[in-house]
Predict the structure.
Amino acid sequence: MGTNRPNGSLYTNINDQVATIEFGHPASNSFVSELLNRLTKEILALAVNEKVSVIILKSEGEKAFCAGASFDELVAISNLDEGKSFFSGFANVINAMRICPKPIIGRVQGKAVGGGVGLASACDYVFATVDAAIKLSEISIGIAPLVIAPAVERKIGNSALAELSFAPTEWKNAYWAKEKGLFSKVFDSIKEMDGELEHFSSQLASYNLEALAAIKKVLWEGTEHWEKLLIERAQMSGKLALSPATKEALNKFKK
């Protein structure tokens, strides 16, 4: 299954009970709204696909894993409805990942920013390379990582979330992310990571699907209110995006 358009690509390959979703975009694998919508639908479809036991989420190429949400779309927000809709994109993806009964393994080959960190945080297990540095840059452009914050905090805790949020220009390396609990394993190369990932995912797919679903449900206990919470956060973010201070910061950044 796959779609390839100027506003990004999304491909799914199913092999021996393992579904690999690969997303891509020319702008450092960032997400336009339509690509986020397609990813949400794809995860929900795989959640009920009997031929799938495990999902791998990866991005194209060997450079950035994900630069977050589309900067061009963010700049173009002109009213509250547009703002809420824009920030709901990641809210919907995170909620789809949360309710999917199948383990989702993240494959992070390079840098992750903003929503990219949120995406990795919503995975159940994450393989990364030494090049997979992370940062939450939102504060530096006048917004805040409100939608992804619950997912990031669930993985790395409140103090590490604060450390990322209040130092929006500072990269944290892959070993920092592993120490905090965001990454499960860190590898020296993409080749080494992919070899281990193939072995790990096929082994995981051989286990009892009901047992996998049961432990995933336990791991996500206490997040049932996110269906409402993340959309409320999207509205708050949309409001921030319209503030004069944000518009000024975005224009400076654009230049």
In short: The CA atoms of residues 106 and 120 lie 6 Å apart.
